[in-house]
Amino acid sequence: MVRQPYPKKGTWTPDEDQKLIAYIMRYGVWNWNEMPRFVGLQRSGKSCRLRWMNYLRPNLRRGNFTREEEETIIRLQKELGNRWSAIAATLPHKTDNDIKNYWNTRLKNNNSASATTETSCSIEENSCDANSSASLNIPTMTDFPEPFACSTTFSPSDCHQTEEVDNTYSMRELLFHLNAIGRY
DNA sequence: AACCAAAGCAACCGCTCCTAG
DNA sequence: ACTAGGAGCGGTTGCTTTGGT
Q1: Is the C-beta of residue A97 closer than 7 Å to nucleic acid chain C?
Q2: Which PROSITE patterns does the UniProt record give (predicted)?
Q3: What backbone torsions phi and psi does residue A92 show, to the nearest 5 degrees?
């Protein structure tokens, strides 16, 4: 159980994002505290989890909130209070952090009026040319050590409990996603 | 063009909850 | 039933961006 004594903090770099996405594509999520070592990141497990959950995982839609989403947030906040994860569960393409920020910055002091009239959802912002992948430096699977190749306290079956399951997340989708989140 | 203030957002911290042993 | 460790959540901070002067 060797942990980094001083894990790196601050804004994530594109390289770190690429490594984390590529690793999770291959092995899935098995232990946030141990994973950073195998990914080759000097981040805490918490930091990796947060980055993945809020920005890197598939199916997130960054950008403006639609009017419907905004109304849902206002209504559920009245019903549930600041239970952002519960509210986020009803908006599958948004994260609790997104919703929390949106509430605190735009709706909190103004929740009876619409915070913005321009709420068009810019799906087109997510458009990307997957053919541009050749110029990107995406880590390959061989860049990562096999988790069970190291002396650890978990078993191979533990490490690979989600292996192959995530193969629906193809390299093309990875490239699309990296573009969509504005990294490239 | 330079400066400043406000707004927005990404990330960290500390706590609670959950689960396996 | 108890404990330890991991995961998840909400509050908060601080950096970056944007708009005004």
Answers
A1: yes
A2: HTH_MYB (PS51294), MYB_LIKE (PS50090)
A3: -60, -20
Number of neighbouring beta carbons within 10 Å of residue A181: 16
The domains located in chain A, with CATH, are 14-60+125-180 (no CATH), 67-121 (1.10.10.60)
Q: Is the CB of A55 less than 7 A from some atom of nucleic acid strand B?
A: yes
Identify the CA nearest to A163 among candidates A15, A66, A23, A38: A23
A63 CB neighbours strand C below 7 A = no
The model's pLDDT over A82-128, given as tens digits with 9 standing for 90+, comes to 899 889 888 878 898 999 989 888 776 665 444 344 444 333 333 33
Instruction: Give the CA-to-C1' distance from A21 to B16 in angstroms.
Output: 29
